[in-house]
Automatic annotation (TrEMBL):
InterPro entries: NTF2-like_dom_sf (IPR032710), SnoaL-like (IPR037401). Pfam families: SnoaL_2 (PF12680). This is Nuclear transport factor 2 family protein. It comes from Pseudonocardia spirodelae. Residues 6-100 form the SnoaL-like domain.
Length: 131
């Protein structure tokens, strides 16, 4: 596992969202499983992570995969009584900072519940994403 991926995983597992965001580049691009346009920048990423920690229950990483272009952290969690399986896809820049974070989740019923729960939490002006 790359150093950036290991530190990101440790920060998320510890619930240290400030540390996780600090590991990202200033212009990090976050691609949500439930929003069409990406969120851009650390300031937009922080509220998304807050919302995830509010909505998900029992979040834990269960596997990891690495390749020359990035790192994948597989997770399980719950949302509204539904089991969620997902992955965090991390890509880092030459400086070691996370420059892209893409999240994918399944099944569709869990993704729908995630969208319904997170929508109101991210409806603040300037949040960066849309449906």
């Amino acid at each position: 596992m790359t150093d950036a991926a290991a530190r990101f995983r440790a920060a998320i597992e510890a619930g240290d969202l400030d540390a996780a965001v600090a590991l990202c580049s200033e212009d990090v691009v976050f691609r949500s499983p439930v929003v069409h346009r990406p969120y851009r920048g650390r300031a937009a990423l922080r509220p998304v992570l807050d919302a995830v920690f509010t909505v998900f229950t029992g979040f834990r990483y269960v596997a990891e995969y690495a390749g020359p272009d990035g790192h994948v952290l597989e997770f399980t969690a719950g949302v509204d009584g539904r089991d969620v399986q997902g992955v965090d896809i991390l890509r880092t820049g030459d400086d070691g900072a996370v420059r892209e974070l893409t999240v994918l989740v399944r099944p569709l019923s869990a993704a729908t519940a995630l969208r319904e729960r997170m929508g109101p939490l991210l409806a603040a002006p300037g949040s960066g994403g849309d449906g």
